[in-house]
Amino acid sequence: MIDKINLLKSEINGLSAANEAEVEALRVKYLSKKGEISLLFNDFRTVPADQKKAIGQALNDLKNFATERINSLRDALASVDSGLDGIDLTRTPAPIKLGSRHPLSIVREEIISIFRRLGFNIAEGPEIEDDWHVFESLNFAADHPARDMQDTFFIQRSPDVLLRTHTSSVQTRVMENSRPPIRIICPGRVYRNEAISARAHCFFHQVEALYIDKNVSFADLRQTLLYFAREMFGPDTKIRLRPSYFPFTEPSAEMDISCDLCGGKGCSFCKGTGWVEILGCGMVDPNVLEACGIDSKVYSGFALGMGIERITNLKYRVKDLRMFSENDVRFLEEFIDA
Ligand code: DAH
Fold first, then answer.
1. pTM of the model
2. If exposure means fewest CB atoms within 10 Å of the residue's CB, which of 3, 39, 127, 315 is most exposed?
């Protein structure tokens, strides 16, 4: 019996296995109910009483030895498979570098959330447009210079297919397809055929707002603008409206805010005036309402449009417009906490 035990022990010591299945086969062979070690335990009954103690001890040792050996074969396989040898899974991992939101997205979201608080909903339209939505419906005369090749990227001529030069085209799309009251905010990318420089780009971003209802007045426009300016640039911000001209609004105005760099005293940023221009606005021209099927005797409204790059420059003092589209991570990382 003792010889059998020693033989099995050295056999088990020399075992090897290439995969889980082989380890399992070895476990069955030696340790299962009908395995070789169990058979030895069955023979234990025939051992003379004076040898029972020593052989019992040796049998138990053999069983423990076989169990450990087979477990260690299994463990060795597991660590080879996972490739985790030498890797401490309990260690704190190195921090993962998170990306940051693009400054234009940050500012766009901020503008949208201010207008949302006033009950405006987002509306979007296509970047590839036709002449009607970008110019004709918005009261641009046939010979208006903005239609010129100088300004507009045409994809096709007659019928004209072009890249929208402003988000005012979304006004038309919404007015054509819904009835007042209309209160929308339209963020989007626009294109103009301009030489790229620090101050101009062939594409940039705008946000358009439109409010149409009964009895909408210039006072509503002014109050909306004041609310927006103070939410965006701080509660001490002042606004002023200068008369201007846009084909689709009458009267039209441009809005300036007090220069927050010098507090309105005048500096190089505001060219000594104490004011910086931020957007165009006005009362929607009755011709535009009629072109979109809205009765201008019943309804009136205001519209405004601003460049997101311009607002972003005011907030973050980005000097070169090209930075916004170069995807330089050193620039983008500056906005991680913004
Ligand atoms: N569409 C004008 C532009 O691109 C901006 C603008 C001015 C929009 C006045 C308006 C507005 O809605 O009322 O320069």
1. 0.73
2. 3
